[in-house]
Amino acid sequence: MKQLMEKLEQFLELGGTKKEIVLLVLSGISLLVSIFDLVPLPFDAAWAAIILCGIPIILEAIIGLVTAFDIKADVLVSLALIASVCIGEDFAAGEVAFIMQLGGLLEDLTVARARAGIEKLVHLTPQTARVLTGGEERVIPAEQVQVGDVLRVLPGETVPVDGVILSGQTSVNQAVMTGESLPVDKTVGDTVSSGTVNQFGAFEMKADRVGEDSSIQRMIRLVQSADAGKAKIVGLADRWATWIVVIALSAAALTWLFSGQIIRAVTILVVFCPCALVLATPTAIMAAIGNATRHGFLVREGDALERLATVSRITFDKTGTLTYGTPQVVCVRSACGDLTEQRLYALCAAAEQFSEHPLGKAVLRCYRQENTEPVLPAQNFHIIPGRGVSAVVEGQELLAGNREMMEEHGVAVPEAVQEAVNRDLDQGCTVIYVAADSRLAGTVTLSDTIREESVDTVRRLQQLKVQPVLLTGDHENAARTIAGQLHISEVHAGCLPEDKLRWIEEYQNGGEAVCMIGDGINDAPALKKANVGIAMGGVGSDIAVDAADIALVDDEVKELPHLVALSKRMMVTIRCNLCFSMGLNFLAIALAITGILNPVVGALVHNAGSVLVIVNSALLLKWRKAGS
After folding, report:
1. Are 225 and 130 in contact (CB under 8 A)?
2. Which residues in the chain come in under a pLDDT of 50?
3. pLDDT at 286
4. Backbone phi, then psi, for 377, in 5-degree steps?
5. Which residues pair with 140 in a beta bridge?
6. For position 127, what pLDDT does the model report?
7. Under 8 Å CB-to-CB from 461, ≥6 apart: which residues?
8. How far is CA 280 from the centre of its chain?
9. What is the pLDDT of residue 113?
10. What is the tens place of the pLDDT at every residue in 260-293?
11. Under a CB-based contact definition with an 8 Å cutoff, are residues 335 and 414 in contact?
12. In whole angstroms, what is the distance from residue 138 CA to residue 23 CA?
């Protein structure tokens, strides 16, 4: 007896899915014993299936009716079970209970598999951090790290918070945040995100965003809000299920009244359970959410995918969405015959190396990315607010700044140089003039560059019959230049937040569903206004992410066409599921009324339909449009 109690305790400690599997195995064995009469028993072995699988269904139906008068599939299944037992069809009752629980298990496994890619974020939340204080290292809980703390991260450890590397070089596995399979090299000045894994070298970092503000926690908050039950079409299926319960009861009662055969009435109750109908939508939505997660999207609610399937226009913010959002050196022009462009680039980077201005930082960053030689040393560095910087490099007094700076220091700018600069400015570029010993040395042009994947993304969206629109706060010339490179025909430049709202509202008033994609605080109102808002979760602001329905974790817009195609495919799957389940139910009830189906065969037909619906939905987990 003691051993039996220990086994029972171990069983109760099993997870929900494991318990369901154990109960189904025992119930399946009992049904085999019952139908083949394998073991002589004083009672029908099918009662084991009725008790193990049927009692939970009946209890859930009673609780739903008593607490909320919730008439759902469990009510009809419970009536079918009880009616089957009352007329002596014990095997039919056990079979109905068994297959219903089997269908429920398949749904749980589908949903669990769909959510697995999202929930790993929660499990990968860092637990501890190494804080450096006065040269000493202390290990503390990660949630106690404060902004500005200096941390040490060893090889193999998870980065505890967001921050900037102060010393050391390493490679970081960012798969949890970006999906990248290869590690990314990191060095001084590079940012690292919480939840990513340090693979090779130790480094020290300064905490920038901690606790609930860290990248991993922001993603977790988005994950926890994902709920397939919010989709409107799910509510529709639930309402249908309620009416089907009423219709089934009426049909069973009338059939019994006119035929006088209660077995036909019981069969109607068995085959008319709306389980496949109720399973049709949530399983498809959760499978689609799981698919989207593997491609870098966090979907906050299933309704967002439903709405995305109807979108005819996608409005893009430019900076940080179709472009990288950070200035890049795109052109270096020497104005002196004895000065090479590479030498001019090196002098400009040396002069800007202590600058805190974004353009100065961009020049230094780009130079280091493109050259292995160290930056030349600089002395007597000075910042001239609103103009630029000055420094002495290899004995030369350098000036790096705007045209006004050149004029104030008496540096002449040849007409040919200025014409080239004007062409750059017309295309939305920014130009730094560089002078050496009061003589113009040349210019360095910077521009926000288009993401490599943006052109192909726009082309694939157009193939999906979705019209891309550029909504940007940049001036007309810059916007037109970018739009031309991306083959976007509709452009609205110089847009303030209220202008973006106005354009989106105008499209909506014209009967078009609009998706907005943005990354900044100024995009948040438009993200809220649009039928579907998608925020660039990596570079986007917290406000933009919170305002959006979907977040693109790794900022890879190349996956956007897949998301749009997936949403359309999801709706096709849902409609197929609904039509199939409704058609099967009405066919089965017609056969039951005429007496062709008995309770046992009816249970098999009906529950086979539920299993097929779940399997069809599960196909969305790995679906990808051919050729994409």
Report:
1. no
2. 1, 4-5, 7-15, 114, 117-118, 179-181, 226-227, 229-230
3. 84
4. -70, 150
5. 129
6. 86
7. 314, 468, 560, 561, 564
8. 22
9. 52
10. 888 888 878 777 766 677 778 888 888 898 899 8
11. yes
12. 49
Instruction: Specify the residue for token string 């042009």.
Output: 445
Residue partners of 135: CB distance under 8 A and separation at least 6 = none
Query: If you ran DSSP here, which 8-state letter would residue 53 be given?
Result: I
Q: Is 430 helix (H, G, I), strand (E, B) or coil?
A: strand
Compute how many other C-beta atoms are within 10 angstroms of the C-beta atom of residue 588: 23
Residue (of 133, 221, 80) closest to 607 by Cα position: 80
Measured between alpha carbons, how far is 131 from 129 in angstroms, rounded to an integer? 6
Enter the DSSP assignment of 442: E
What's the CA gap between 569 and 309, in Å, rounded? 8
Task: Count CB-CB contacts under 10 A for residue 68.
Answer: 8
Based on the residue annotation, tell me whether 108 is a catalytic residue of this protein.
no
Burial of 87 (0-12, 13-18, 19+ CB in 10 A): middle
8 Å CB contact between 217 and 223? no
| pLDDT in the model for residue 179 | 43
Give the CA distances from residue 459 to residues 43, 134, 321, 628, in Å, rounded to whole numbers and listed in that order.
68, 56, 16, 12
pTM over 0.90: no
Q: Which of 492, 460, 466, 542 is nearest to 308 (CA)?
A: 466
Output the six-digit token pair for 127: 């637990």
CA end-to-end span of the chain: 62
In the structure encoding, which two tokens stand for residue 604, read together? 């098999």
- Of 623, 318, 262, 342, residue with least CA distance to 477: 318
What DSSP letter does each residue of 263-327 carry, written as one string?
HHHHHHHHHT-THHHHHHHHHHHHHHHHHHHHTTEEES-HHHHHHHTTEEEEEE-IIIIIEEEEE
Write down the catalytic residue from 90, 317, 424, 549. 317
Tell me which DSSP letter residue 376 carries.
P
| 182 in Cβ contact with 165 (< 8 Å) | no
Distances (CA, A) of 577 to 418, 569, 617: 66, 12, 8
